[in-house]
Design goal:
The complex is a heterodimer of chains A (218) and B (329). Chain A is an alpha/beta fold and 218 residues long. In chain A, 38% of the residues lie in helices and 23% in strands. Chain A has an 8-stranded mixed beta sheet with strand order 2-1-3-4-6-5-7-8. In chain A, α4 runs parallel beside α6 (149-162). In chain B, strands 1, 2, 3, 4, 5, 6 and 15 form a 7-stranded mixed beta sheet that branches. Chain B has a 5-stranded parallel beta sheet with strand order 7-14-8-9-10. Classes of the chains: A alpha/beta (218), B alpha/beta (329). The A-B interface holds A 3-5, 8, 11-12, 15, 39, 42-43, 46, 100-102, 104-105, 108-109, 112, 143, 145-151, 173-174, 180, 184-190, 198, 200-202, 204 and B 1-10, 12, 14, 98-99, 112-113, 141-146, 148, 150-155, 225-226, 246, 262.
């Protein structure tokens, strides 16, 4: 089954021709209790079929507990995006839940970002991130029907790519009601910084940065 | 399941979404700009939230618009202008602009359902932005207060929610919320609903929507950090409490709408946009017209004239630009 329209498929094939680094998607599934694992795998397979530079490895959790633990995966479906190579590079880019609806564009954006090896962050942000010495965990809660959400996801993922200290997760709120409840999510996008600092809406780069500083008390 | 590239914003623009001029706002300024831009053979797109999103669309009777023997409704006048622009080839899109990047080449306009590219831009978003918030609104944002039903509707499954406002956007969002909510209470500050005929019909026959006219929200009341209800006041001054879990706010005010711009534009004292004699903003190739301008006389005919000036200036700018690509049409 193909999910992409011919026009979009052709477009993405061309777009992915510009990739210089190989990109690897690691998809973690739990066939027993996972409503969206199959659909997510279909999406990942279709995206990986568009370019030699994009590959997919599907890890069934039952046979890959140690791999999942290494990447910090506890919810399914999950996608970890790596820059592939003899020693794959994990920037800390994660997707929990299906990257469908508006979030499909986030997935494509991230592939292009990792494949080209560059973010669009400002020099000032890059400089601040270069000096970051403490770990930061960003969790961006989204719904697939939210047009503002990819902006928040992409900003968080760019920060993850720019700094080894940052891990950034997209979390599809309706698939993980327990997580949504834990972080009191009733509106999206909502970004959680290190468990206890919250950002409502798709805020500009400088605003997220200032919230991160607040969370880290610096 | 269909995968859609609707909001993918690549560096290289897809040809079908590239326009010579994108006009944001389809009131008298935007529609008049579209007439002149399209007539100048520029590929022209107008992105507009709806017929009653702006000041003219909700005006009852116009009798002083030169050349139009009234009284006509503002909506009918805007509609005529749009039809005129469409005749010359302008395209109209009912959507909301959620972000722009005017430093990109071509300039990028992100709307709810797609991304568009423009060589020149005319801003004509009017001045019906909100000037104040309801007490409790800011504190409870993301905890039951929302501005986006498609984003957040799923969090209110089988709950009672309120939609506050009186325009196409509010009515559309109320209709959308009936998919999830047990009941949607439409709180309308004015004595009557103003929206396009088909929307009015749909809303008034939808059993999941209860309409409360002439009712203002005095306060959004929270309990344990979440929206618990609304303190309402009707026209006679009677107060009541409405128990809701969520409130979606689409109120309008009298402030120039520039919040979607984000970029560094030269802004006047009350948030209005500054332009030069040729309607160009502080950013080359980005023009503005109508009520969002500083010291603008708020009359439809002046907004229309501004729009024409902006379109002529945009055409001049594009003809002078070195990257002419005539094959776009």
């Amino acid at each position: 089954m193909t999910l992409l329209k011919d026009k979009d498929r052709d477009y993405l094939i061309k777009e992915f021709e510009g990739l210089t680094n190989p990109v690897k998607l690691m998809l973690f599934t739990n066939p027993d209790e996972c409503e969206y694992c199959e659909d997510t795998q279909t999406i990942a397979e279709e995206v990986a079929s568009l370019s030699d530079k994009v590959s997919l490895e599907v890890c069934n959790i039952e046979a890959n507990q140690d791999v999942a633990a290494r990447y910090g995966i506890q919810a399914f479906p999950a996608i970890v995006m790596l820059q592939d190579g003899p020693q794959p590079k994990d920037f800390g880019i994660r997707y929990f839940g299906i990257p469908a609806g508006y979030e499909f564009s986030s997935l494509v954006h991230d592939i292009v970002m990792v494949g080209k090896g560059e973010t669009q962050l400002t020099e000032a942000t890059k400089q601040w991130l270069a000096e970051l010495k403490v770990p930061v965990h960003l969790q961006v809660f989204v719904t697939p029907t939210c047009p503002y959400c990819p902006q928040a996801v992409l900003l968080a993922h760019q920060m993850a790519m720019q700094s080894e200290m940052i891990r950034a997760d997209m979390v599809e709120a309706t698939e993980f009601p327990d997580l949504a409840m834990k972080y009191d999510v009733m509106g999206v996008p909502r970004t959680v910084i290190n468990e206890d600092t919250f950002v409502e809406g798709a805020v500009p780069e400088a605003a997220l940065l200032s919230k991160m500083k607040q969370a880290l008390a610096i | 399941m269909i995968l859609d590239l609707q909001s993918y914003t690549p560096n290289s623009a897809e040809k079908s979404n590239v326009y010579d001029v994108v006009i944001i706002g389809g009131g008298p300024a935007g529609a008049s700009a579209a007439i002149y831009a399209a007539r100048a053979d520029l590929r022209t797109l107008v992105i507009d939230k709806g017929l009653t999103a702006g000041a003219l669309g909700i005006t009852d009777k116009i009798a002083n618009y030169p050349g139009v023997v009234g009284p006509v409704s503002g909506a009918a006048l805007v509609e005529t202008m749009r039809q005129q622009a469409t005749t010359f080839g302008a395209e109209f899109l009912a959507d909301k602009v959620i972000g722009v990047d005017f430093t990109a080449d071509p300039r990028l306009i992100i709307a709810g359902t797609n991304t568009y590219f423009a060589r020149a831009v005319v801003l004509a978003t009017g001045s019906m932005g909100r000037t104040s918030t309801i007490p409790g609104e800011a504190e409870l944002l993301g905890h039951g207060v929302s501005y986006c039903a498609t984003c957040d509707g799923a969090f209110f499954r089988n709950k009672v929610v309120a939609v506050v406002g009186n325009n196409d956007e509010a009515l559309e969002e109320a209709l959308f919320l009936t998919r999830y909510a047990q009941k949607v209470v439409l709180v309308v500050p004015t004595p009557a609903l103003t929206a396009s005929e088909s929307l009015l019909q749909e809303v008034s026959t939808q059993p999941g929507i209860e309409i409360r006219l002439s009712t203002r929200v005095i306060e959004i009341i929270g309990e344990s950090g979440h929206v618990a209800g609304l303190h309402l006041r009707d026209r006679a001054g009677g107060d009541s409490f409405l128990m809701v879990s969520g409130v979606f706010v689409y109120l309008q005010g009298g402030k120039p709408i520039v919040d979607y711009l984000g970029s560094p534009f030269e802004i006047g004292a009350n948030g209005c946009l500054l332009v030069d004699a040729e309607m160009q903003t502080s950013m080359a190739g980005v023009f503005a017209a109508g009520d969002l301008l500083c010291s603008h006389v708020k009359q439809a005919v002046i907004a229309a004239a501004d729009g024409v000036k902006a379109a002529i200036a945009a055409n001049k700018y594009l003809q002078g630009s070195k990257v002419l690509q005539a094959d776009w049409n």
